[in-house]
Structure formats: structure tokens, C-alpha cells
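Students often ask why inverse folding is considered easier than folding. One informal answer: many sequences map to the same fold, so there is more than one right answer. In these notes we will look at a single instance of the problem. The structure comes first.
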């Protein structure tokens, strides 16, 4: 079974050929649209949209579902950040960026 217990192992997973291939399949299946925005009637499938593929059942806790297409959904960066309760820096706001380093992939 895939070991996703450490940040380094998750980073290795997100850099793997298997993940990159499956990620593209999920994006194509979802028509390169954020599924949450789509559900709310917002359009997010433009060429400049930052789309990310989210594990519905989180990788860290459900490694057996890491490469299951049915466990993936396309989210825009904003929705993915909301889903994981991350912050983004907003202008003069004092909000800080809070991201998990192991979830940054290209």
C-alpha cells in the first residue's frame, strides 16, 4: 500500500507519473471546470483558471484511494483552499497564506 504518512512521501506521490496521468484524466473528465463553481452556476473553465485536483477522501488518511478516479474532483484554487481551510493574502488585509507544502504540484 502507498505510504502517505509523511510530507516527503506525499510529495513523492504528487510528483509520480501515475498521479500526473490520473490528474489529467480527472481534469478532462470534469471538462476542466471547478465542480463546486459549476454546481453554483459560476464559470471557472477559462484558460487562465488555476485548477487543482482534489482527493475527496484525503490522501493522508485514505492512501488506498490515492489513484481512484472516483475519489477525485476538479476544483479551482479558491475552492480548493476553502475546502482545506487555507488562507490567501488579500491586499492590505492581515490574512496570511496558509498552505500545506506537500499539496503543491505542477
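Output (designed amino acids):
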Amino acid at each position: 500500500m502507498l505510504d502517505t504518512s509523511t510530507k516527503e512521501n506525499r510529495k513523492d506521490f504528487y510528483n509520480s507519473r501515475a498521479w500526473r496521468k490520473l490528474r489529467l484524466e480527472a481534469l478532462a473528465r470534469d471538462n476542466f471546470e471547478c465542480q463546486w463553481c459549476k454546481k453554483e452556476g459560476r464559470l471557472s473553465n477559462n484558460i487562465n483558471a488555476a485548477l487543482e485536483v482534489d482527493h475527496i477522501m484525503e490522501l493522508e488518511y485514505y492512501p488506498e484511494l490515492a489513484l481512484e478516479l472516483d475519489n477525485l474532483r476538479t476544483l479551482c484554487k479558491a475552492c480548493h483552499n476553502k475546502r482545506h481551510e487555507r488562507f490567501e493574502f488579500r491586499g492590505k488585509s492581515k490574512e496570511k497564506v496558509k498552505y500545506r507544502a506537500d499539496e503543491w504540484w505542477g
